[in-house]
Amino acid sequence: MSDKSHWDHIYASRTSDSLSWFQQHAKHSLAMIENTSVAHDGAIIDVGGGASALAADLLHAGYTALWVLDISAAALDAARLRLGERAALVHWLESDVTCVQLPPAGFDIWHDRAVFHFLTTPEDRAAYVERACAAVRPGGHLIIATFAEDGPQQCSGLPVMRYDAAALHAEFADATTLVHTETEAHRTPSGDLQHFCYCDLRRV
User: Which of 38, 95, 141, 197 is the Cys-Cys partner for 42 at CB 3.0 to 4.6 Å?
Assistant: First the structure.
């Protein structure tokens, strides 16, 4: 996984709403989470959620058991500041997703928009998949969003992987089935267009 100092610098030197992956509301992610029919008290973890509006959107929608995981302390600080008093309703975890310790089968939904595509080595991807699949209960969901095949080749000064739905599911195929996939044309704060691939994977 990328060096923690790199991400702390990114978040400390720029406002969240200037980052390329910023969304005012996480509409695609929220819709896919709602489509799983997981109960509002189901446990949801948002991986790399420091600059995401998803936690706020989930709280507004009535979800009550939320975790946010990010490698960057600065990202988590910004997220807590954005939520204000509601930050106390979220469990915050500062860790590298490739080596994090999480409750076994502790989550109904694992959500990741724009972390997995930064894992450019097979070893890092295998570590991620192992931890993600161990953390999601059987029948639970992994909602993973990465740059699509025609997405950027770099982000935040780092190389990335790009996926279509088949290739993304293949990374998790031993432990999941593909439930649903869709694409998103994301307009960045600077006006560029980035294409994302989303997969809803059910844990077997």
Answer: 38
